Amino acid sequence: MNDADVKTLEIDGHQISARRGQTILEVARENNIDIPTLCHLDGLSEVGACRLCLVEIKGSNKLQPACVTAVFESMSVITDSDRLNRHRRTILELLFAERNHICSVCVANGHCELQTLAQQQGVTHIRFPYRYPELPVDASHERFTADHNRCILCTRCVRVCAEVEGAHVWDVSGRGINSLVITDLNQDWGSSSCTRCGKCVQVCPTGALFDKSKIGSGHPKYPDFLVNLNLMREAR
Amino acid sequence: MNIEELEQIADSVRGANASFDHEVNVCMGTGCLSQHSDRLKDALAKAADASGKKVLVRRTGCMGLCAAGPLVLVDREHVLYQHSRAEYSERIVAGLGGEPVAGLQCNLREHFDEQVHIVLENSGRIDPEKIDDYIARDGYKALLTAITEMKPDDVVRQITESGLRGRGGGGYPTGLKWSTVAKAVGDQKYVICNGDEGDPGAFMDRSVMESDPHRVIEGMAIAGFAVSASKGFVYVRAEYPLAVSRLSTCIRDARRRGLLGSGIGGTTFNFDVEIRLGAGAFVCGEETALIASIEGKRGTPRPRPPYPAVSGLFDKPTLINNVETFANIAPILRKGARWFASIGSERSKGTKVFALTGKINNTGLVEVPMGIKLRHIIEVIGGGVPDGHTLKAVQTGGPSGGCIPADMLDIGVSYDALIGVGSMMGSGGMIVMDDTSCMVNVARFFIEFCMTESCGKCIPCRAGTAQMYTLLTRICDGSATMDDLALLEDLCATVKEGSLCGLGQTAPNPVLSTLKYFRDEYIEHIVHKRCPAGVCSMQVPAEVMA
Amino acid sequence: MSKLKLATAWLDGCSGCHMSFLDMDERLLALAELVDVVYSPIVDAKQFPDDVDIALVEGAVASVDDEKKIRKIRAHSRTLVAMGDCAVAGNVPSMRNPIGPEAILNRAYIENASAQAQIPCVIVPQLLRKVRPIHEFVKVDVFLPGCPPSADTFHSALTALAAGAELDVSALTRFGA
Predict the structure, then answer these.
(1) CATH class, B138-340 region
(2) Is this complex's ipTM strictly greater than 0.90?
(3) Which of A112, B357, B413, C111 could form a disulfide with A108 if both were Cys (CB 3.0 to 4.6 A apart)?
(4) Domain formed by B354-434, architecture
């Protein structure tokens, strides 16, 4: 490794070294600096869509998403400030108000990344009027259910299905506030070309995609398989 | 095709034109066509035949003054007829060479005299579908000169020195963009023309593509030469069928003349252009979304960097410019960077085409030098506000722009001045509002637009614009509190700073600018439950079950 | 020092928050040293008093009656606490919102009725079209999410409120807790 491949930078006042091409998020997490994320998942491509990982970079007034911003020499990053936390809380509140997230009756209660982040960020109520859209629940699959009321459109299911399983059953239909993840060309999940691998369920950060056998019993998700799977594939 | 052959074509067209005693141009842009200017043209041709006069009746593109259409221009005499109809044909023809028909004449001298036409120099003067008409007005000369006598670097330098900035809205220096793509390493590069004009009330690019499509193709080909790209795409929204059909015709004709394709002008330069249709998504005007759309993917933006100049279409270096930007290229090469830089203001060179709409007399397109006072555009060129109403504000920059109050209209129109007052140049939409416009309602209109056009990828834009719309609706129906207003302002900050692409980042501008200049109207709605302009119904929807 | 006046109220909720409140068990005795319960479903007062120090409100606002109550409570309370997810976020009662009140009443009183199928319309208060959390009607000072908030949460929160001390709600509870 030559000198140009090593970058030294500062994150929240800590002096840190990194390899060229690493993202701020990678480097921060290697150094136990927590930056909240929802759309990012180790093992999937980045989309930079949830905007929770926005950070301040000294010398720029524009906030940058840590998940897709590469480190550069002498960069100085702030991951925790009033300004950032205000935006993060607002984004979480927007998600809660967007669809019908009823934590108390959700299969993912206690295992939900949205719920956990809300608590971490100190969101105790939602200032925005709830939208209460009428959304479908697709229970046509023999093993899994898709409850769109709980979907935050992070597109992890879309990416894991296309990039890791190679099936590309999931995608997004519609646009804006009317976006919806769909299977195949908007067929029922049960009659779609789904391979029944269940990866989408494991990577779903909320209770939107769940295993029917877990109803009423707590439904922890195990997205870590992705990193291991990728390692094994690389080794082969 | 070489320059001499080009000159021969030009001479023969000029000669053919000179064999007529009169040239009558009929606007057949979308606006005038919607009022049957095609029938008018046929009737004029028939009347001319019957009269025995030697008259060339020519189909042309837009003449700009859409409010007065259909328009007929008697070219050599500079007589303009407004609101023309087929049944007036005999009278118009009878007036040729004599006294113009009095009641039909359009006498808006100041509307036309104050304009400077570069982009629109051929609009309304040539048949857009006749490549020889374009060649007769020095068309393709710049391209052939560039590829035979200049090096790509020289072309980039000319564009840089001209001071041209992107006409799509952002105002990024065109020369800098070109030189970045020129320097980018890649076996294949692309040139894309962004014709996905989507701002409400904006139709500059449509008009250029309909009225003078060869100008856009020539600009793209020159760009291809400058950055070493061999392939170009024009991305046009499918809602512009006339532009699409004229562009298709023109691309075909340019290929036949050897002005597109391989070995252009006997050189080793290859360049061809294809059309791609946008399927009606505003966000596809954003460059990374547009590229995704051309690639056949869902049209959503992606984070930058990497910028398209480095990794764009199919991950290759890609130059992407707006229609109007490309339309400026040939004149710059023909007349020189210094000529172009002499027009306009300090940091905004050349001219800008604006689409004047809303509460204004002379609705239509105008092309004015940069730096001209906004007030001059509205009151003199635009003819002011109709029906004795008073001017209240001007919205520039479409849904990404802001509302500029009447008392600030003495600023000169430039990229920086408009940003300075909380708006932006945008692509050139200019919506005029008078005392019957409610500024809260205007803000709500633009937010509704952004909400329905948000792609839904990032949360601040997807859910944020929907919440902004809800809060603004509350203000408009009188159910909002001052807390709602504070929440709205808070939300504006997150949507602006947090969104992924330009659509979301600029979506709050109409709210922020109206809040800045017309805060009293918001307060009036919230505190006194009254809409000063009398637009909002102030009726709260029933909350109780019937 | 005189004791603080504590009121609790019950709008559209399941009473689970009140049950959880009572789950403070022996700690209720210590709390009773600090506060007098002047109005509550668990005491006998019929009228909401004029000057309450702390009001705990369970349940979402679902009817015109709920709305009247919450406005009255707000007007006469120094500190208003939204108690539990229904009051804070609408929770289960708000699950009728996407489909509307008619559909819900039909299912409950017509389709599922075994006798005398009819939608009640006398004595019962008119429903609002949408069930909403209380802060969409009145200003709320403290939000205690949870379904229900635990007895420990109540204990920590009330002790802090009574003492006028700092309260970090997110350290105690969350939505759905």
Answers:
(1) alpha beta
(2) yes
(3) A112
(4) Roll (3.10)
